[in-house]
Amino acid sequence: NAGVTQTPKFQVLKTGQSMTLQCAQDMNHEYMSWYRQDPGMGLRLIHYSVGAGITDQGEVPNGYNVSRSTTEDFPLRLLSAAPSQTSVYFCASSYQTGATYGYTFGSGTRLTVV
Amino acid sequence: ILNVEQSPQSLHVQEGDSTNFTCSFPSSNIYALHWYRWETAKSPEALFVMTLNGDEKKKGRISATLNTKEGYSYLYIKGSQPEDSATYLCARNTGNQFYFGTGTSLTVIP
Question: B65 in helix, strand or coil?
């Protein structure tokens, strides 16, 4: 049981480049989300999905796009990378929305934009 | 309180000491309160999920309580061990969104 798999683990981008962070889970979780973690800021929600075909914005969605074509996958796209997007990104999933079940987190992607 | 606040920010205790942390949150519109344990270089792991005022949960030496009316939750660790060293996060769930605190970093000194 792999849980939540994130790739890549590390990435360096130049300003203006685009890329996709991959997230896949094999637990048949309906709820998936992306967070960024910055020093002193805690985990902040970027986008989330309550099921295939349904996505919504979190606290800090600007500069990011998501899609959810399958239950398993929830990729995060950076459209035009900026230094302010340097962060550690976590994908997380949960069995149900309303989340009275805990999250399962991926191992994180450390992104540096230069 | 607009967001989730945790205190203290960091804590050093001796092995064998008991300790507790606080999570404060807006008392309105809360579906659940979560606690996570986050070790360095790993991902956060779920400890407890509490939904009802007065809920108490326990896992080994770690326990948590929830007061939704006044907007706080306590996490207790009894007889701290070096392996308890981690950052402890709480998160308020309002339905489809979570709001995380910045965590309490615990270091247990052998």
Answer: strand
